Amino acid sequence: MAARLPVIAILSMLLASCGQGRDGTLGVAVIGDAAALKERGQRLSPSAQLVRAATDEGLVGFDEQGRVVPALADRWIVTDNGQSYIFRLRDGTWPDGKRITADVAAALLRKAIAGLKGTALGLDLAAIDEVRVMADRVIEIDLAAPVPELLILLAQPELSFSWKNAKGQVVGTGPMAFTSAEDGAQLFTLIPPEKRGLPQQESFASRARAVSLSFAKAAAAVARFDDGDVDVVLGGKVDNVPLAGRIGLTRGNVQLDPVTGLFGLVVTRTEGFLGGAANREALSMAIDRDALLGGFNIGG
């Protein structure tokens, strides 16, 4: 569930001083296929999730620590014993310049949920009974039963909002936008806050950095990082961890996404030993996570 987190971590680098690129561009290699750039709809590959997370926002998002933070919704409350979530949208604009309104956002959310029918994420969202407009910038999500992880689900890239501009091109609500292709890489830039309906930031243009995004197989991506051709590699899996050891990366160079569960696992059955909350808590306390990761030279 943490597909968006690496992108958020990168965004924190984009308003900083110049990196390895001579023009200050941040080089990013994604483990995957460039076909991810053309994926549409709600059924996304892992690499397409990364692209969607960079270019589209939903009601909420993640920060670099995996915590749910405001996105298009700047605040929310939970009522009715966890069966009602009320979101107030920010006072901003859509990509076409029109005001962000609840009726449009609700329609986009309903469409996204419908597109996930039959998927694992769609099953997690099955408890959503209704998405309705309460006021000009207020949306309510009614649930048939409480869903404790609903905010985490809503922060997934598949539930972000895309938009068609006057030319029929699909554009997102930010925080980044595709600008050009160059030497086999795709160039993305941060959208100025005022163009997203947010307060203007002083000296934004002089501080913002572009991202040069390329795709490669795991070994090639890690080799490019080792050679200094890219600053960041995203999209690795557990079976890619040995690649980091082969090139002698120091602790802290390799980061794991925050996850929900017991050392990355979620208890899905309530029968047997793990059916008791006290047993699950005892097992969680018994696991030395730092020691388990120590042999892999991994931080995060």
Overview of the structural elements:
The protein is an alpha+beta fold and 300 residues long. The chain folds into three domains: 19-40 and 174-252, D-Maltodextrin-Binding Protein, domain 2 (3-Layer(aba) Sandwich); 57-173, Dipeptide-binding Protein, Domain 1 (Dipeptide-binding Protein, domain 1, Alpha-Beta Complex), CATH 3.90.76; 261-300, no CATH class. Helix content is 25%, strand content 22%. It contains ten helices and 13 strands. The chain has helices at 5-11, 46-55, 102-115, 120-124, 150-154, 204-207, 218-226, 241-246, 277-286, 289-294; strands at 26-31, 60-62, 68-70, 73-79, 84-89, 128-135, 138-143, 162-164, 170-172, 176-182, 185-190, 211-216, 232-234. Strand 6 (128-135) and strand 7 form a beta hairpin.
Outline the secondary-structure elements.
Layout (H helix, E strand, L loop, with lengths): L4 H7 L14 E6 L14 H10 L4 E3 L5 E3 L2 E7 L4 E6 L12 H14 L4 H5 L3 E8 L2 E6 L6 H5 L7 E3 L5 E3 L3 E7 L2 E6 L13 H4 L3 E6 L1 H9 L5 E3 L6 H6 L30 H10 L2 H6 L6
Parallel strand pairs: 1-12, 1-13
Antiparallel strand pairs: 2-3, 4-5, 5-7, 6-7, 8-9, 10-11, 11-12
